[in-house]
Each structure stands twice: as structure tokens, then as C-alpha cells.
Amino acid sequence: MRRWVVPTLGLMLIATAGWATDLGVARQEITDRMSAIDSNVEGLSEAERLSAFIDLYFEYAMLEFPEFATYLGIPGDHGRWSDNSLEAMARRDADRARGLEILRGLDRSQLEGVDRLNYDLLLEDEEEEVAAQRFLGEYLPITQMNGVQQNVAQLLSMMPTRNLQQYEDILSRLRGVPTVVDQTLVRLEKGLAVGVTPPQVTLRDVPEQVRNQIVEDAMTSPMLKAFTEFPEAVLPADQERLKDEATRVYSEEIVPAFEKLHDYLVEIYLPGCREAIAMSALPDGEAWYAHNVKSMTTTDLTPQEIHEIGLSEVKRIRAEMEKVKADAGFDGTLAEFFDFLRTDPQFFYTEGRDLLMGYRDIAKRVDAELPKLFGYLPRLPYGVSPVPAYAEKSQTTAYYQPGSVEGGRAGTFFANTYDLPSRPKWEMEALTLHEAVPGHHFQIAIAQELDELPWFRRYGGYTAYVEGWGLYSESLGEEMGFYQDPYSKFGQLTYEMWRAIRLVVDTGMHSLGWSRQQAIDFFMENAGKAEHDIVVEVDRYIVWPGQALAYKIGELKIKELKAMAQTELGASFDIRAFHDKLLGSGALPLNVLETHMKEWVEEQKAAAAE
After folding, report:
1. Cβ(607)–Cβ(599) below 8 Å
2. Do the Cβ atoms of 416 and 81 come closer than 8 Å?
3. Which H or E run contains 23?
4. 398-401 vs 411-415, strand pairing mode
5. Distance from C-alpha of 168 to C-alpha of 444, rounded to nearest angstrom
6. Cα 407 from chain centroid (whole Å)
7. 155-168: per-residue pLDDT in tens?
8. Quick one: 158 and 197 in the same domain?
């Protein structure tokens, strides 16, 4: 049993496998205790009130979003799904607005040091979330990248399977899947009614994704993978019972629910979805996009300014590509070099298992180089796995899924083995550095280990920092002995170009009137990635407006801070100390990160002068 203690309120907050059976009672208790923080009946200091608020906020999150406990790998109500009915979502919006009022009522002037930083970060996060309530994101529960057709199997795969209770939790969640589907259908229908849908073109593979979850043999479903093998702690009689019940629930309840979802998507939803791709086509869409841009980049840059930065970066990286092309001894144009890289058989595996082994070999070689650049290494291991077959066609080249020390779950670098002629070998080193180490796995695992930080800083994140770090990590390849042949170096430049192109096409489509084809063409002209990959990427930017801007903006800031530190510290600059400091406070907004690192530089200068 794990406990979160709020000593200032004299309360013991206990997260166990059995939360209060009456969720209404549990919610009221939290509301009452939040009111006690607001009125300060205990006469607490402002630092104590803030600490109590943060801890109670965590308990609220565990109550309202039990999937979060599964994701973190901590005790919680793992047999339940979040209530995503429109009524529950409206209630949570009201709760959040009330929480913001209470947070604003704290006297910031009485907070110091880390307490003041925690307050500022939490206040900004909550203000941003409440501001987003004017938009209608709750009516977009499904895209080609996300939704019940992917999330159910993904979450079930994260659930631990060490004892009988954990299997009962999985069964309970399986029984809840039809309700999850029904709540999704209500939201989709409401979205159609008010004109809030993804563009039709991006959903072309979603019915197939749903259909992929419907199989004749229940035990081949990814949802039931846990029931194909049991630990010794689960007795044979229980194994048989659990397996029979899982099969029944899948066949009699889940399959009909997914068939209903599939038919609704094909017959009603997709035909009614919008044709326009720009976010401006949605209600309040221009303001919605501006909100996303600010949220994702943690800057005040306008879409036009970001577009110009992107064009400048594209021009710079193209010049670097020309040099590498010459180093490779290729006599044709850059466009012809792109075509060569996209089509020559030497650059591609013919078997998915060989692609995965290639990634695993790179990862193992990276691991050995990490101590040269980092003083602190995370404890949590990671692995390389294929993107699940039910989602691979519309998924990106790769992605990372965080692990959990508490939950006994390693981090996972998922590599896409679909359409191998679109997965060149020359991109693999850069991609491993980004998604695994020293990129996402490294940064996220370290953040999880920062026990002195409050939970929302350990487990939360700012996209510009997280993805900026991932892209910056790719640039460390040369210092770690990678990119030794011109093709792998070109791969690293291709991935940097990819992120520069994002600045251009995301703002182009959502703010400057670009068409989808215009974005695809610009991508094809400036990157060596395969056309299938490019189309998938462009469609990702369409349904996730603004997110793609974070990578390059974050990377540029980190490189700027590194150059500043090297200039200011000269011979005393220590790359390992720089990286440890950069990662040692978890994810931060870029302006806060800049202040943080400048203060560190001044501390280093003062220490060197002593």
C-alpha cells in the first residue's frame, strides 16, 4: 500500500485497490477538504496550504482518472474507467474552475524558492486548462491516432498481471468497455451536431482500426493478451474461470459494442465530417489554434513568426544536406538523392523482425556511450517493440510509451514495422536517440525519479521541453560515435528537417490557408522520407494542431542555452553537469528553463572564481 500524506490537514490519503464504492461520497469528501484549504480553518501557512492543495489535487486525479494510476503503476482503482459522459466532463470542468479560484486565493508573496516555482507552474497550468474550456475538444474523442479503438487495448497492456486481484481488475475493465464505447458515440454525435469533427480525409483508416479489434477467436484479441498466460500465483481453477469469463465478455459484450461503433463511423460519422482541414474551420477555431500554439510552445510566438523560423531552418538544413550529399559521392540533385534514399533496396529491411533487431542493436550501443555525456543515469530499463498491428497503418514511424518503476513496467520504444519500404535504415540512429536514449525514455524516467518534486512535475510535462529534448538528443549522436556514414548523417539531418518542416506546414495549414496537398508537396520537396510516412505525418498535424511546433522551438532554445553556457563558462564548461542540470528539475516551460539555466551558469562562474 502506498500513501500520500498531508500532515498539515492531519489527513492520511490512501490509494488502494478499493476506493470508496460510492464515488459521489468520495467526491464530496474531496470537495469538503478543498473548501477547508480555501477557508484555511486550520490556520496553515501559505506553503502548507499549497502543499495540501497539490496532494489533494493528486487524490482527485486518481479518483476521476483511474487510468492515470495504471499509467503511473501505483495502487488505485484499476478496475474502473473514467466517466467520460458529457455530464461528468462538465462537472470536472466546474471542479477545475473552482480549484483555480482556490489556487488564486493563495498569497504568492508569502511563498519562497521551490514553493513559489511550484505555485507558478501549477497556476499557469490550471489557467491554461480553464481557458481551454471555451473550446469543444470533448467532441473529438476519435482520430486516426487516438481513441477507444486504440486506447482500450493499450491501457489493458499496461496493467500488471502478478496476482488474482490484478486479473479481476482487468476483467472489470473489460466489462466496462461497452460503456466507454457508448460514451464515445454520444460525444461523436454531439460533435456532428455542432460542427466539431476531424477532417474526413484523416479518418479513412479508422473504421479498419475498429474492425481490427474484432476477431473470431477471442484469445487472439490484444485486449485478452493477459489471459493467454498466467503467473503461478493464480491457481489453475481461477485461471480457467478468468479465461472463460474474459472470452464471454469479449464475445458477448465488447464485439457488439465495436461493431456498433464501426457501423456508426461508416454510415453516419465519416460522411458527416468536415472536408476543410484547417482548425479555423471549427467553431472559435482561430482562437483555438492560437491557444494550442501558446500551450505547445510555451512561448508568445505568433503562427506567422513560427512559420518564418521554419522557413529559415529549412533553408539552413538544406545547405547541410547538400554537403552530406557531396560527401556520399552522389552527383545528382538533392531531389534525385531523396529519390535514391527512398527507393534503393540497400536501405531497407525485408523482415520486420530484422528492423526491430536493428533498433535494439543501436540502442545497446547508445547505452554504452551515455556516461560520457551524463552524470546521472535513470534506473528504469526500456525495450523495443513493434507498433501493435491494429494501429500500425495510420501510426507514425515510432513513439515512446513511459514505464513505471512502481508498476514493474519498462519503458517501451515502439517501432513501426508496417510497410517496410517506408522504413529506411538511415533514419534509425536518429530515431533511437530521440525516442529511447538519451531522448524520451531517458528524460521521462529521470523525471519520475525526482522524488523531491510534486507529482504534477514528476509525471506532467511541457511539450516544447519534452519534444525539444528529444530532438536535441538526436544532435548528440556525433559525440556518441554515431552518424559515421553519410547516409546516417543524412538521416539525422532528415529528422531535423522534418521538425523544421513542421513549423512551416502546421502553421501553413491551420493559419495561412495551405491545402493538405500543398503541405505534402512541401514535405516531399525538402525531406527524404517516404511518401507514406509523409502523408501520415501531415494528417497527424491536421488532427493535432500546434503540437508539431513544439519540437523545433524547444530544440532551438536548448541549443541556445547550451551555446550560452559554453560561452560564459569557457574551459570550465562541463557537458555532463549541463545535462544533469537541464534534466534535474523535470520538464519546464521554456522561459522558466532559460531562467533556471542562466542561474546555474552564474553559480558555476562564482564557484570557478573562488
Report:
1. no
2. no
3. helix 23-39
4. antiparallel
5. 30
6. 19
7. 999 999 999 999 99
8. yes
pLDDT digits (tens, 9 = 90+) for 510-558: 999 999 999 999 999 999 888 988 999 999 999 999 999 999 999 999 9
Calculate the alpha carbon distances from 389 to 68, 99, 396, 528, 600 in Å: 24, 41, 13, 25, 46
Mean pLDDT of 243-264: 98
Alpha-helical segments (H) within 396-549 = 428-435, 440-448, 455-458, 463-475, 486-511, 516-526, 531-543
Buried b (16+ CB within 10 A) or exposed e, 461-476: bbbbbbbbbbbbbbbb
State the amino acid at position 553 in one-letter form: I
Asked whether residue 82 falls in the same domain as residue 23, the answer is yes
Compute the distance between CA of residue 179 and CA of residue 185 in angstroms, rounded to an integer.
Answer: 10
- Which distant-in-sequence residues (6+ apart) come within 8 Å of 494 by Cβ? 321, 426, 427, 430, 527, 528, 529
In a shared domain, residues 299 and 271? no
What single-letter DSSP state applies at residue 283?
T
Q: What is the mean pLDDT of residues 125-142?
A: 97
Range of 456's domain? 290-552
The DSSP H or E segment spanning 13 is strand 11-15
DSSP for residue 254? I
Other beta carbons within 10 Å of 364: 11
Question: Residue with C-alpha cell 461523436?
Answer: 188
Classify residue 285: in a domain, yes or no.
no
Q: Which residues contact 270 (CB under 8 A, 6 or more apart)?
A: 200, 203, 206, 207
In this structure, what C-alpha cell is assigned to residue 57? 489535487
If one counts the domains in the chain, the total is 3
Looking at the structure, tell me whether residues 511 and 452 fall in a common domain: yes
Residue 141 within a domain: no
One domain for residues 372 and 518: yes
Q: Who's near 514: CB < 8 A, 6+ residues apart?
A: 505, 508
Q: What is residue 3's predicted lDDT score, i.e. its pLDDT?
A: 23
Whole-number Cα distances in Å, 216 to 212, 227, 312: 11, 16, 53
Report if residue 605 sits inside a domain. no
Residues 356 and 410 occupy one common structural domain: yes
pLDDT digits (tens, 9 = 90+) for 177-214: 999 999 999 999 999 999 999 999 999 999 999 999 99
Strand pairing class (411-415; 382-386): parallel
Report if residue 433 sits inside a domain.
yes
pLDDT tier, 390 (very low <50, low <70, confident <90, very high otherwise): confident
Q: Contact, 417 vs 352, CB < 8 A?
A: yes
Write out the DSSP string of 357-422.
HHHHHHHHHHHHHGGGT-S---S--EEEEEPPTTTGGGS-SEEEE--BTTTTB-EEEEE--SSGGG
The C-alpha atoms of residue 596 and residue 557 are separated, in whole angstroms, by 13
Does the pLDDT of residue 559 top 60, yes or no?
Answer: yes
Q: Give yes or no: residues 347 and 235 share one domain.
A: no
CA distances from 420 to 215, 358, 417, 532 (A): 25, 13, 6, 11
Write down which residue in 275, 305, 337 finishes a domain.
275
**8 A C-beta contact, residue 516 and residue 509:** yes
Three-state DSSP at 274 gives strand
347 and 310 assigned to the same domain: yes
Q: What residues have CB less than 8 Å from 137, skipping those under 6 apart? A: none
In this prediction the pTM is 0.92
